[in-house]
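Researcher: Before we compare anything, I want clean individual predictions. No alignment, no superposition, just each chain on its own. First chain goes here; please echo the sequence and then give the structure tokens.
Model: Echoing the first chain and its structure:
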Amino acid sequence: MSGAQDRETIGQALAMVPSGCSIITCAAGGNSTGMLASWVQQAAFEPPAVTVAVKTGRPIEALIEQAGTFTLNLLGENPGPMFKHFGAGFAPGDDAFAGLLATVTDWGVELADAAAVLSCRVTGKVDAGDHRVYVGEVVGGKRNTDGKPYVHLRKNGFSY
């Protein structure tokens, strides 16, 4: 086996892994927040499950740990407004949903502008480097549009 490849070569290859973008939301103890997430994937058919990766230390991490639930708001073909709203992130206590049509549910916060919404119950988690990967059993869902989901490729596999 040959030696390890350089980061640039690995980064170019990692960048070819396509991902969508979603807004992960959570509500617990009277607090709620949301974050833009690109590392989301269906993980099982029965029961239906998804995985989401959250950078360690993000404010939503503590809420997911407390609630044991999250909502995945999948973005459609025109994600610009949601990128702008959620792109910078939110500090604890900030109103992450100001100016948006949003509904707090038992699972998190549903965004009216999402292409689809999945309500999830956390069934597992694993630390993966600088992220924590949550496994969520999908306990509810709805599709809000006939349009296609947003999909993108990153320029480099070592940054968002």
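Researcher: Okay. Second chain, same rules.
Model: Second chain and its structure:
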Amino acid sequence: MPIETLIALTGFAITASFTPGPNNALIAASGVNFGYRRSLPHILGIAFGYAFMIFVVGLFLGQVFQQSLLLREALRWLGIILLIYVAYKIATAGGLSQADGRARPFRFYEAAGFQWVNPKGWAMAIAITSQFIDPAAPIESSLTVAFIFICAGIASASLWAWLGSQIASRLSGPERTIWFNRLLGLLVFAFVFILLLT
């Protein structure tokens, strides 16, 4: 990959990873409710799950999704339904529930799996692979793009989780945490509304 393309890809990855979106809202909520350390599986699930998705889209699925409106719409609506559910769980409990009803952070595989139904993630994956995957060297360029997104994803999710944990230390008392969770749930729901408009 030429150095100019690599610089453009890195800039795009940083911008896409750090700007607000469903992943960053969810990991910030995890930081608030569970702290940075307990959010590490979620952080790694975002970074590696999204990088793997980009790799697979770059090698196999990019053309399929670009050509199939039905498939794109089905995935979009599945993602929207899941985001509404997650927004509700954050607003009412602070996270996903365990068997005993207590809130818990996302596990690695849940965060990685979420990337496959995240509408913003799919839109970016298709745009990224169409711009940065070299048809003459699909494996090498897909691996390069995936690696860049692993680095950007870990940095971004770590920052958002850390910011969440810092906010949590300033929320004195459970009532403020409850209201903050409601606000984060509303933020995730707002992303759903934006996705419905696009």
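Researcher: What stands out in the second chain?
Model: Residues 3-197 form one domain. Additionally, The chain has a mean pLDDT of 81.
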